[in-house]
TrEMBL record:
CDD domains: cpPDZ_EcRseP-like, S2P-M50_PDZ_RseP-like. It holds the Pfam family Peptidase_M50. Gene3D superfamilies: 2.30.42.10. Keywords: Hydrolase, Membrane, Metal-binding, Metalloprotease, Protease, Transmembrane, Transmembrane helix, Zinc. This is Zinc metalloprotease. One of its GO terms (cellular component) is membrane. GO terms for biological process: proteolysis. It is found in: Membrane. InterPro entries: PDZ (IPR001478), PDZ_6 (IPR041489), PDZ_sf (IPR036034), Pept_M50_Zn (IPR004387), Peptidase_M50 (IPR008915). Its main location: membrane. It comes from Lampropedia cohaerens. Residues 226-264 form the PDZ domain.
């Protein structure tokens, strides 16, 4: 229920904001607005405020919306109102009305990111867990317990890193743009600072899937190797393990963080002898024999699992990340700009085959993330809204027929040639745009279902 409500709130807020941008700009340009609809299809609720010429509607299908304006191309218009038709507005005003929707979504993203910065968010400190063996992080010299103080993408300016989430964003950005990431660390085992470089430029990482993250080697912040939920019928249950058990050692090797324990379990995928676990439970020390189960993972490779959550958000050191009014706004603008640029770059790479189309997400993934973020609290949900609002703004600016960006391309043609796109051309382009949009939606839904099944 939380997932469904969070999804409806997300779509409702973002569509309303988008269409409100079109609506307010149309009114400012003197265009008569006939209907403001949230949702598509059959109207469920409709009303007309006193003195308003616009009908407001909530429709049955909560996937989109529209602003219907007076337009001679869509029906007969009385002589005395023709000057208020959208088609009679100067080119600059028509373009401004179309552009206002996506821009309003981008402005909302800035405000939401800024609000999260001002409010403050509890986040994991950027203290690194044991890197994956033979990974880029391991070869670069990162060790268990190192704290990241600052990071710079390639030769860009270094910026202070206050949380693991900030580090993850910089890591993703550098990997997807194929640029090195320079980290300033406070080592766990020695005083002072050290600087290391993650050579992501030569790693040829196309997608941030599980395999790519393993190659990079930085998977999670350092967390206590304590067990959480136990899956019924799993190896953990068969061994008698319980939630709250603290794993001290495996086969005589001390376990200092959750990621180290995960790697120890995964190392048994090639062979499956029982492991001797030294655990602490209710102040007592116990020795337990655990035999991880070998199962087929992604790509058919065998992986080892015990069927228990290892480490959780409550098992690592946290900090509250909060910024003042000016810095919070600056970071909100910067995050919006960086994410918009990265989104466009990724779309370009998918177009030329340099990135997988599996990066596309659809309504199922959005609903899942909406529910998860809402369950974590208001700040996390606002952050999620900012990301989706930004994505909606950027995608609507793509030069595809039926999207706002496609209409802007029509107006660019008109500005260059001095005449509008011929009606016959526009009809053909609209059909092609609808077909392409349906294809992309089908692909995104297919990706969603694939993730869900995995």
């Amino acid at each position: 229920m939380v997932t469904v409500l969070a999804f409806l709130v997300t779509i409702g807020v973002l569509v309303t904001v988008h269409e409100w941008g079109h609506y307010r700009m149309a009114k400012a340009c003197g265009v008569k607005v006939l209907r403001f609809s949230i949702g598509m299809g059959k109207p469920l609720v409709r009303w007309r405020p006193s003195g308003s010429e616009t009908e407001f509607v909530v429709a049955a299908l909560p996937l989109g919306g529209y602003v219907q304006m007076l337009d001679e191309r869509e029906g007969q218009v009385a002589e005395h109102e023709r000057h208020r038709g959208f088609n009679r507005r100067p080119l600059a005003q028509r373009a401004a009305i179309v552009l206002a929707g996506p821009l309003t979504n981008l402005v909302l993203a800035v405000l939401l990111f800024s609000a999260v910065n001002w409010w403050g968010m509890s986040a994991a400190q950027p203290v690194l867990a044991t890197p994956v063996p033979d990974s880029l992080a391991a070869h670069a010299g990162i060790a268990q317990g190192d704290m990241v103080l600052a990071a710079a993408v390639d030769d860009g300016p270094a910026q202070r890193v206050q949380s693991f989430e900030e580090l993850r964003w910089l890591l993703n950005r550098a990997a997807l743009t194929q640029r090195d990431l320079v980290l300033t660390l406070q080592p766990a085992q020695q005083p002072g600072e050290k600087t290391i470089t993650l050579p992501l430029a030569q790693a040829d990482i196309r997608d941030l899937d599980a395999a790519a993250l393993q190659r990079i080697g930085i998977l999670a912040p350092m967390a206590t190797p304590v067990l959480g939920e136990i899956v019924p019928g799993s190896a953990a249950e068969a061994a008698g393990l319980r939630p709250g058990d603290l794993v001290r050692a495996v086969d005589g090797v001390p376990m200092r963080d959750a990621q180290q324990l995960v790697q120890r379990i995964q190392a048994s995928a090639e062979h499956d002898p029982p492991q001797q676990w030294l655990i602490e439970r209710d102040g007592a020390t116990l020795t337990v024999q655990v035999t991880p189960q070998r199962v087929a993972g992604e790509g058919g490779a065998m992986v080892a699992r015990i069927g228990a959550r290892i480490g959780s958000s409550g098992d690592y050191a946290t900090t509250t990340v909060r910024y003042g009014p000016i810095e919070g706004l600056q970071r909100g603008v910067a995050r919006t700009w960086e994410m918009a640029a990265l989104t466009l770059r990724m779309l370009g790479r998918m177009l030329v085959g340099q990135a997988s189309l599996e990066n596309l997400s659809g309504p199922v993934s959005i609903a899942q993330y909406a529910g998860q973020s809402a369950s974590l609290g208001m700040v996390q949900f606002l952050h999620f809204l900012a990301v989706i609002s930004l994505s909606l703004g950027v995608l609507n600016l793509l030069p595809l027929p039926v999207l706002d960006g496609g209409h802007l391309m029509y107006y660019l043609w008109e500005a260059v040639t001095g005449r509008p796109v011929p009606q016959q051309w526009m009809e053909q382009l609209q059909r092609a745009g609808v077909a392409l949009l349906l294809l992309l939606m089908t692909l995104a839904l297919f990706n969603d279902l694939g993730r869900l099944l995995r």
